Amino acid sequence: MYYQSINGQAEQHLSINNRGLAYGDGVFTTAKVVNGHVALLSAHIERLTRSCETLNIPLPDMDDVTCELIAVAQRYALSVAKIIITMGDGGRGYSRQGCLTSNVIITFHDFPKHYADMQQQGIHLGVSSLKLGVNPLLSGIKHLNRLEQVLIRQEVDNREEDDLLVLNYFDDIIEASAANVFWLKDNCWYTPQLNESGVEGLMRNHILQCCNNDRKIMVVKEKLLGLKDIDAMFICNSVMGIMPIRQFQNQPLALIPCHEMIKFIQDVK
Prior knowledge:
D-amino Acid Aminotransferase, Chain A, domain 1, 2 domains, 7 helices
């Protein structure tokens, strides 16, 4: 870890009464830092703001958060920034009564060095045996309750594939273990609806915005059978960017359309 702070101070410890620890009462976002700048910074700040408002978490001074991120990011050519906002201490049981403030935790970490090679070579994607719950209230929010993802990641670690596609209990395609998914079929890119399950990733939204007028792309509700005879596929998040899939289950896939998408997104101003 390069850097860490709590509420703007060089602290390492939170109270054992913190509600983020006790109940997962909080939200977070993870960003790529390139050449001293936090990529998609305004989108990350907007996500945190919107998520806190949705969950009725007192909003910290986001100008202070932004200034700290900008200042610290200047130290690093390539790293990963993580911002966590939790409810503070107080309340009894699940009740927030008496808890009037939030905490902001900012950390900077090493960037995963293997991502560059994986992006060129592509990865093998399987299908998880676990299924995501359906909760429209929390769908799309990157909250601190990540037990589903912990269990899915545990399954990934015990499988031969590099990552796993995850469905929800309606058998709708949702996402990978920690990334959104896109696939190409008949010259159109598709990505799942996330109004019932999953996380609405910033890179997913960035791709949708970039492709809005220039490339055919659709947000759909799709079952696993809909991935039969696809031409290409990638997963994405704001840290690793676009990660091409060279093989989905037993099906080899083309990498060129994914690399073309990577270049297209990089060229969009």
